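Hello support,

Our group uses your service weekly, and this is the first time we've seen a run hang past the timeout. The protein is Lipopolysaccharide export system permease protein. I'm not sure whether the cause is the sequence or the server load. Input pasted verbatim:
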Amino acid sequence: MQCMLNSVQKDLLKKHLGPFLFCFFTMMFILLMQFLMLHVDKLVGKGLPIMIVLELIVTNLAYMVVLAVPVAILVSTLMAFGKFSEWNELTAVRAAGINPFKLILPVLIAGTLLFAFTAYFSNLILPEANHKARSLFLDIRMQKPAFDLQESTFYQDLEGYTFLIKEIDAETDSLIDVRVFQAETDGRDRAVVSAERGWLDSPDQFTLSLFLENGSILRYLPGERRDDETVERSFFDRYRMSFDLSDLAFSRSNPDQRSRTDRTMSTEAMLAVVDSLRTERENEYRSFTENVSESDDIPIFSDVGRTLTLGETRELDTLRVYDSEFYSVNQLFNPTLQINSLNRAINAMDSYHADLDRFYTNNNWRTFKIAELLVEVHKKFSIPFACILFVLLGAPIGMLTRNGNIGVAALISSGILTLFFISIIQGEKLADRLLISPMTGMWAVNLVLLTAGVLLTLRVSTSFRLTNLWSRDQ
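Update from on-call engineer: The timeout came from a worker crash unrelated to the input. Re-ran successfully.
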């Protein structure tokens, strides 16, 4: 019987392999197409080397792996156990006295191993890939467009020159009715070059030559004074202009010299930053409270926001003094002292309000930053943990549906995945806004699905039913 069980377990694992690989690569393809559609405008028209584009794609494949593995596990588990139940193999196993949980166990172990791999990948490999991809994106964003002339359109991306081409012959690449506006520099006068025809030639990627025929050059020669500018016009049969395209060449920066964000840091690095922020927050709170308690200039009023007034006047020993709502002011029998005392109190309170606002701003910024970092820490493990959850959900659901068709598996998976990822996204937003804790935001849906998975597994492997909990016979 033990030998039969081993063969059944192996058969189930083999049934997982094909659907898992198919779903994994399908998800990777879908996510890759989505990435290209979102960023194709940033890559096209800038003359980027093909290896730079490929490197950008490869570095962005990392986050796709973390998403695709749990999805592939869910679909393959639904298909394998659904087909196993559809072919009545589950009925035969039960008739042989074998607990169905023993069939789920090897798949659950495989899911646990994939969870460990995905968590390791998400914690150490994904941040580095995200950091390189982010640095590459910034370099590409700063890259100027390639030298690409369009008909009847001003081209101004080559510093010091503006090109205007009326017509471009697509068959011969000839330029018709060419205008080149040359800006004034230290070693070059302002000029306008016109020609009937022209063509481009580039011996290498950093040099461009423009050959012109039948044209003229209008040069603006400066005199001793601005008003003495001289215009000189010359004609040519053939003329050549050379341009330096090094400014248009792609330039890479060192990723290690760029700052890191929460999505480009490992768990250990983020927890270190969190500890630092908490220490800074505590030190600032201690410093603020000590300064307030040690200050003798800050009065404590019942309503610090109201306007301080002196009140009505009264005569006392030929001095005109004021009746104030503040007892301490009334003890001063000199109007000048009364006014000075109130002014000092107002100034101290204004200073206190400024310090208090600054303290609240810094404290809130650190609190929000801590929440963002902790959300990323929990997310690095909550999403990979779905590898275990989806085995506990997919196996019993597949047994109960008794259908291993990919359409049924895709339909059920779409519902579960929609619930899972919407909960993760919304949980992240709520945690970032401090409405819930980072742990609750990232693990609440996992707890719900884990509970459902355990109950469904008990449903197919034992006589336990949820209704037994409130049945009269129990």
